[in-house]
């Protein structure tokens, strides 16, 4: 990895530019980390919501039909396999 330029020999304008660049990189890295966390949270929330919805469908089918043949067949066909 290349060494950063020595700032003690650079003109002040270049030093300021390098400083702003480093600050912007830090800001963008922090933003990227926050977005990754948000993405993980959204995926987890979607999974939880989907599970609640599937459980509710199962409850409604079993209360009206006494069984849940369609949900089980559909889930098996798409590979979810939730019992």
How would you summarize this macromolecular structure in one to three sentences?
This protein is an all-alpha fold and 83 residues long. Helices cover 77% and strands 0% of the residues.
Overview of this structure, please?
- The chain has 83 residues and is mostly helical.
- The chain is rod-shaped and about 80 Å long.
- Helix content is 77%, strand content 0%.
- It has one domain (12-78).
- It has helices at residues 12-65, 69-78.
- The chain has two helices and no strands.
Task: Give short descriptive properties of this protein.
single chain; 83 residues; mainly alpha; 77% helix
pLDDT averaged over residues: 81
What is the total tally of β strands?
0
Describe the oligomeric state of these chains in a short phrase.
single chain
Low-confidence stretches: none
Q: Characterize the biggest β-sheet.
A: none
């Amino acid at each position: 990895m290349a060494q950063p330029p020595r700032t003690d020999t650079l003109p002040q304008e270049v030093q300021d530019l390098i400083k702003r660049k480093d600050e912007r990189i830090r800001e963008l890295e922090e933003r990227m980390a926050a977005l990754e966390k948000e993405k993980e949270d959204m995926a987890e929330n979607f999974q939880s919501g989907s599970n609640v919805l599937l459980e509710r469908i199962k409850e409604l089918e079993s209360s009206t039909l006494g069984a849940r043949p369609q949900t089980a067949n559909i889930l098996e066909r798409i590979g979810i396999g939730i019992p």
